[in-house]
Write a structure and sequence with these properties.
Layout (H helix, E strand, L loop, with lengths): L1 H19 L13 E2 L5 E5 L6 H12 L5 H8 L9 E12 L9 E6 L14 E9 L5 E9 L1 E3 L4 E8 L4 E9 L2 E5 L5 E5 L5 E3 L7
Antiparallel strand pairs: 1-2, 1-4, 2-3, 3-9, 4-8, 5-6, 5-9, 7-8, 9-10, 10-11, 11-12
């Protein structure tokens, strides 16, 4: 009799534990969502019809990061782009916030980059550039910039980078390559190093990139 009671209590305890534990769906490597520090999806691609203003901002981001225009855009934003550099746009997505309440300024978001990883040669430790296309107070459209680092989540098996944003709209991720090496920048957009595929770092001139 005592054994039956013990088994019943144990079963009840397990049931209560299961009800109190929140289960999160696994993130597909091909789903370019953004998560918070706990792995909750709080950002996803905008799948609703865009307003005229939203479409204009998205078109601006795409047009200014297409082909040779991408290098020009980075130069206009203060980045030293070396001669014959290859500016690789990893991906651009128009995002919306799906977390609780309104998005707070400085929200930290882990952006899943694996949806675009194929052919982009992403590696953990790569320094890339995050550009956020926004409508400015004067009505013009421009980019907010920040440097972020590619990381590897071994459990989810995805590449991701963490950015801090005040709002959402088109977000792009870019890396600059020269002679097969990744160009690294400081916060002022000056070249501080080039990192080879083997991971070694070579100091270069911040002005010439040589």
């Amino acid at each position: 009799m005592k054994m039956k009671k013990l088994v019943a209590m144990l079963a009840a305890g397990i049931l209560c534990l299961g009800m109190s534990t929140t289960a999160f769906a696994a993130i597909s490597p091909n789903d370019p969502v953004g998560t918070d520090k706990d792995g909750n999806v709080i950002v996803k691609p905008n799948d609703k019809p865009l307003s005229v203003d939203e479409q204009e901002v998205l078109d601006y981001a795409i047009d200014h990061l297409r082909g040779d225009e991408a290098a020009v855009t980075l130069k206009n934003l203060g980045f030293d782009v070396p001669y014959n550099a290859e500016v690789i746009v990893i991906g651009t997505e128009d995002y919306v916030y799906t977390g609780e309440g309104n998005m707070k300024p400085g929200t930290e978001i882990n952006f899943n980059l694996s949806a675009w990883a194929e052919g982009r040669n992403l590696r953990a430790g790569d320094q890339i550039i995050l550009l956020h296309a926004v409508r400015k107070a004067d009505g013009s459209i421009g980019f907010e910039k920040q440097l972020v680092t590619v990381k590897w989540d071994k459990d989810a098996k995805i590449f991701y980078a963490t950015g801090k944003l005040d709002s959402l709209s088109p977000v792009s991720f870019i890396k600059v390559m020269q002679d097969g090496t990744l160009v690294r920048y400081n916060e002022d957009g000056e070249i501080v190093a080039k990192s080879s595929p083997k991971g070694t770092t070579v100091k270069v001139s911040p002005k010439t990139g040589e």
